[in-house]
Amino acid sequence: MSRRVKAVALTTGFIGASVGAVLLYPVLFPKVLLVKKIPAEVFRRQPEIQVAYRQFQSKGNEYIWGTNDCSILVMDYILATGNPVPFRPTTETLMSEKFMREVGFNPEENIKTGDILVYRYKNRDNEWRGHTGVVVWHDNRHWVVHNAASHKGVVMEDLKQFQQLTARLTKSNTNQQRIFRRNDWNSWYAEFVSRRDNPAN
Predict the structure, then answer these.
(1) Cα–Cα distance, 201 to 199 (Å, whole number)
(2) CA 16 to CA 1: how far, in whole Å?
(3) Which residues pair with 58 in a beta bridge?
(4) What are the backbone dihedrals phi and psi of residue 185, each rounded to the nearest 5 degrees, phi first?
(5) Strands (E), the chain
(6) What is the CATH number of domain 34-197?
(7) Over the stretch 100-136, which tens digit does the pLDDT of each residue have?
(8) For the chain, which residues make up each domain, given as ranges?
(9) What is the DSSP string of 113-130?
């Protein structure tokens, strides 16, 4: 075999192996879309999440509808931002722009770190149901921390996956989906960036 043929064969083999590795990587190392243990890094960067999570633990450390559910986790998050909450909200309450403004959060169109997401939908029995969570930043992408009955407690879920379920349940009705952002977000985000970029602090 000539040197040229050998070189072509080696190059072809290398390219084939590289392409194969690219194709196999998602199979061998699938992208994580949900974790049941919130990383310490998330708590350090967004301490309000840690406060809300500790409240969840103190109330039984599992999903309990009405006493330790998704809206209560978000209520504790709002309280941790320094805003009083006049009463225990439901997802219906959290959909209200009037209520959310009263507790220091404004409606928004696009999602950023620290935002509250909430949606409402009708189940198979034509009864209204809802869900809510808080956006966090981890591993160079957005996630949603939420207390889910289906997972028996608090989890951190990839934002895109959370949005896919939201779209399916609401039948892509954006009128049944809300984004709310704390009104001191700019100053809060500056502190978040400092914690993010200076792990030792």
Answers:
(1) 5
(2) 20
(3) none
(4) -60, -40
(5) 34-35, 105-107, 116-122, 128-138, 141-148, 153-158, 177-182
(6) 3.90.1720.10
(7) 999 999 999 999 999 999 999 999 999 999 999 999 9
(8) 1-30, 34-197
(9) TT-EEEEEEE-TTS-EEE
